[in-house]
Every structure is written in C-alpha cells, then in structure tokens.
Amino acid sequence: MLPPRENSPTNAAVIQAEFSIDERRLLLKLAHDAVDAAVNQRELSLAFFPPHLSEPRGAFTTLYREGELRGCVGYVLPVVPLYRTVAESAKAAALDDMRFNPVTSQEVPLIEVVLSILSPLTPIKPEQVEVGRHGLVVTLGLRRGLLLPQVPVEHGWDRETFLSQTCHKAGLPLDAWQHGATVEAFTAEVFGDRDVR
Questions:
Q1: Where do the domains of the chain lie?
Q2: pTM exceeds 0.85 for this model
C-alpha cells in the first residue's frame, strides 16, 4: 500500500528523463480526462498520440486528494500502448481500487495525479537493490507483490525493509525474499501535476 503523500515523487533517485515536458503534460491531462470521464460516465476520446506514447509500456496512475492517497492502479507488463495504459489505470484508480470508495464527481477537481512509467522487469539479487532507484516485484507461487520506487523513499525504509514490505504486499512471509521467492526490479520515471506547473 502506498502512503499518504509527504514528498514529491521526484525525491526518488534521479532517473534519466525519457519523456519531455510536453509528453508529461499530455499524459497527465489524459489521466485527468480519464478520471473525469469515468466518474461522470462519459465516453473518453482517445485521439491520436505520438509514436513514443504509443509504445507498449507498463505504468501506474496514483491519485491523491489533499495529499492523501485516493487510489493507485497500474499494469506491470507492457501489454497495450502507453496512452491506453495511462487512461485505463487512471479510470481503475478512480473507481476500482478496493481500498477506497470510488472517486465522486465533487472530488474530480481536487484530484492530483502522479504517473509512474515502468521499465521492463529484470531479475535482481537482493543485495543489488537500490532504494530510490528500483521498484520491486516479489513472486512465489501464485502470489505477487509490487512496490514502486518512491515508496521506500517516502517511508524511509532500508533495502531489507523494502524487500520485506514487498513480500508483505504479496501476502507472503516477510522473509520470503530469502526463501525461494523470485525478486525482479524495474525503474520508473515518476512525474506528477506538481512537476509540470
């Protein structure tokens, strides 16, 4: 579970920016439009998007209201074009995050969006995990847990706590990363409304 937002998402270790400021604005506007359309039961128009934003990518959309987490949903694997991933995850974060009641139409103007665009997953040894750089996926059997790179930074966790909490997210024992679970890492380019003002 992601914490209430206390820090800017850019407090994580600096990742070389892949997306221009205009691309970031376009993706953030799309996320806001998707939330608005979903909450108000309107059709979302997905107009033409440039090729870079049409490449299949995993991404998470995190919603905040007045600094408090309001929803977070995403896709780890790059199965659809990025713009569709953003639109679908924004809609799901607004309506389908089981931890929260659906976003209401009155809340829509108050929603702040943070996007995390994911790199492909790669296997990693626990000692190679870098807090603030890597997000983690821990898998054992049918259980899988994921935490984004900014989560341990926001909580002040060290590497072992980060690994343990990712196991917890999967519903596994905290030490599963030492006992047969698969650990994979990804990086994420994280940006939000505050970063493009």
A1: 20-118, 122-186
A2: no
Q: What is the pLDDT of residues 63-120, one digit of tens each?
A: 999 999 999 999 988 889 999 999 999 999 999 999 999 999 999 999 999 999 998 8
Q: Which residues contact 166 (CB under 8 A, 6 or more apart)?
A: 136, 137, 138, 145, 146, 147, 177
| Class of domain 20-118 (CATH, top level) | alpha beta
The CATH-assigned architecture of domain 122-186 is 2-Layer Sandwich (3.30)
| Digit-coded pLDDT (tens) for 112-165 | 999 999 988 899 999 999 999 999 999 999 999 999 898 999 999 999 999 999
DSSP codes joined into one string, 11-66: GSPP----S-HHHHHHHHHHHHHHHHHHHTT-PPP-----GGGGSB--EEEEEEET
The CA angle 184-4-95, to the nearest 5 degrees, is 80
What are the φ/ψ torsions at residue 114 (nearest 5 degrees)? -125, 130
Distance CA 55, CA 153 (A): 29
Sequential DSSP letters for 133-170: T-EEEEEETTEEEEE-THHHHHHT--HHHHHHHHHHHT
Reduce the DSSP state of residue 69 to 3 states and report it: strand
Q: What is the 3-state secondary structure (H, E, C) of 106-119?
A: CCHHHEEEEEEEEC
Q: Helix or strand or coil: residue 195?
A: helix
